[in-house]
TrEMBL record:
Transmembrane segments: none annotated. It comes from the Bacteria. One of its GO terms (molecular function) is oxidoreductase activity. It comes from Sphingobacterium haloxyli. Residues 53-194 form the Thioredoxin domain. SUPFAM superfamilies: Thioredoxin-like (SSF52833). This is Thioredoxin domain-containing protein.
Length: 194
């Protein structure tokens, strides 16, 4: 009985230490499709979706959609001459919610960077995310909530192990840093702004 309780406690700590990117949403579905594909004959397998194993060193071409308007958003729409940050998140991830809240409280330090929250989840689940967890970020000119309808992020940018996954690209489009999971907010802001 003692061992069962210890295993449950360790399992709980592992679950709450960071949100797994495979815990729900389309990332899990895509990975399940790829796994299933290896178990079917070539005549029944679905087409493979290539996934980026390493973070893209240069900002790739992409087409996401603004959650509020549904308007397409590409790399050509990104304002120049500043850092561009992509935060891949799951709306139900507690760590994503916490990071968003802390970023919102520090908005004054972030107003000179492009800040894009991106998810493959249903836009209905994303629609109230900022209003709920990051009120100070709502309607800011440098902040946008983007829907990755075609799973381009995991194909072109990276497949993270945990959410939130943060990617910092410089004004020249080169990757400056990236990390998966929870980090101290002082570290996050310093990386976003340097």
């Amino acid at each position: 009985m003692k061992y069962i309780f210890t295993s449950l406690a360790i399992g709980s700590l592992t679950f709450f230490s960071a949100c797994q990117s495979e815990s729900n949403g389309k990332t899990k579905v895509v990975m399940q499709q790829q796994t299933a594909e290896h178990h079917h004959s070539s005549t029944t397998a679905q087409p493979s979706i290539p996934m980026a194993k390493e973070a893209a060193k240069q900002l790739p071409d992409f087409k996401f959609y603004k959650v509020k308007s549904g308007i397409a958003f590409t790399n050509k729409d990104i304002p120049a001459n500043r850092n561009t940050i992509f935060i891949l998140f799951d709306p139900s991830c507690g760590h994503c919610q916490q990071e968003t809240g802390l970023l919102a409280k520090n908005y004054e330090k972030l107003k000179n960077v492009n800040l894009y929250f991106i998810s493959m989840n249903d836009p209905a689940l994303m629609a109230s995310f900022l209003e709920t967890f990051g009120k100070e970020l709502v309607n800011k000119p440098n902040v946008e909530m983007l829907y990755d309808k075609n799973q381009e992020f995991i194909q072109k940018f990276h497949v993270p192990a945990q959410f939130p996954a943060n990617y910092v690209y410089g004004a020249n489009g080169a990757l400056k840093n990236n990390w998966d999971g929870e980090k101290a907010i002082d570290f996050v802001i310093a990386e976003f702004t340097k």
